[in-house]
């Protein structure tokens, strides 16, 4: 997920994306704990996507309030 793609979305769309990524992160953590995780790089990728979305959501909130 690129930052330009994320910036093009609205706050509602970002919220739904964030929710789905957090669910995926939970499932990946569960799979890692039980030894079923095959793609270990996906954990890092999801974590960074969550951070990217949260950062851009905050930027949009600050821009609308200022």
TrEMBL record:
Keyword Ribonucleoprotein: yes
Gene3D superfamilies according to UniProt: 1.10.287.310
CDD domains: Ribosomal_L29_HIP (cd00427)
Swiss-Prot/TrEMBL GO biological process terms: translation
Protein keywords: Ribonucleoprotein, Ribosomal protein
Source species, domain of life: Bacteria
KW ATP-binding (keyword) present: no
GO (cellular component) term, any one: cytosolic large ribosomal subunit
Pfam families listed in its UniProt record: Ribosomal_L29 (PF00831)
GO MF assignments: structural constituent of ribosome
Family designation: Belongs to the universal ribosomal protein uL29 family.
Record-linked HAMAP family: Ribosomal_uL29
PANTHER family attached to this UniProt entry: 60S RIBOSOMAL PROTEIN L35/50S RIBOSOMAL PROTEIN L29, LARGE RIBOSOMAL SUBUNIT PROTEIN UL29C
Protein name: Large ribosomal subunit protein uL29
Organism: Stappia taiwanensis
């Amino acid at each position: 997920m690129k930052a330009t793609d994320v910036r093009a979305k609205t706050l509602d769309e970002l919220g739904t994306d964030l929710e789905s990524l957090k669910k995926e992160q939970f499932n990946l953590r569960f799979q890692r704990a039980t030894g079923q995780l095959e793609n270990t790089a996906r954990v890092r990728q999801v974590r960074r996507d969550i951070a990217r979305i949260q950062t851009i959501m905050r930027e949009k909130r600050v821009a609308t309030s200022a």
